[in-house]
């Protein structure tokens, strides 16, 4: 299927692994020029090498989304390398501070919100003029936690709910200018972030990694009817669709890629 994005230019944050990396791969396969960004320059360079893109179609620039100065530097580097972008895919994020509410201090909240909520806001502000050019796409990676919060990671839940609300409002502001804004909300995907969560769980319970995954699914995510973690490409395929001409009537939506994890409509 021709998605109609050949020749478009995309910026994918959180692009050094997982969902962001797979999204960059799929956009490249569809003929887009892609810039990937993440916080670790070395990991980012390695990720770019693994993508093995045609010459001139892939660029990378490290940036910390907590820093307004680094986001502005990212914007300048992107414009120098490829010009204005048509697509922004915001995948960068962290689980952040964990524990029950009374166990998380102010720094835990501030750090999580700075990455998971203010990061998308600042990136959007930096590139909004590019995306208002008559054809634009923004896709934010949110989470099942945005609509089904869990009591041991409330800063992350609140941040993702904030992104969902931000995206909905933004989708009303610029649709008449051709900019479509949507969200994709995955649940328990096979990424470095959930690997770290399961390694911690395995240590705490004194079990193997696989046993930690199995117990997490049965005890914490009982509505994931497929009984497994999702794969990054299963999320990236939905993101790529939302970046395309095929999604030309989709705006202000949340697409859940969660095996049924969210238990309500």
Radius of gyration over alpha carbons? Answer: 18 Å
Q: What is the straight-line distance between the termini?
A: 30 Å
Strand content range: 5-15%
**What's the CATH H-level superfamily name of the largest domain?**
NAD(P)-binding Rossmann-like Domain
Please tell me the CATH architecture of the largest domain by its name. Answer: 3-Layer(aba) Sandwich
CATH topology of the largest domain: Rossmann fold
State the CATH class of the largest domain.
Answer: Alpha Beta
Assembly status: single chain
Strand order of the largest sheet: 3-2-1-4-5-6-7
| Total number of domains | 2
Low-confidence parts: none
SSE-based structural type: alpha/beta
What does this structure look like?
There is one protein chain. With 265 residues, the chain is of the alpha/beta class. The protein folds into 2 domains: 9-188 and 231-254, 3-Layer(aba) Sandwich (Rossmann fold); 191-229. It is 46% helix and 13% strand. Helix 6 links the parallel strand 5 (136-141) and strand 6 (179-186). Helix 1 crosses helix 9 (232-242) and helix 4 (106-116) runs parallel beside helix 6. The longest helix is centred in the middle third of the chain and has 21 residues, at 154-174. The model has no long low-confidence stretch (mean pLDDT 96).
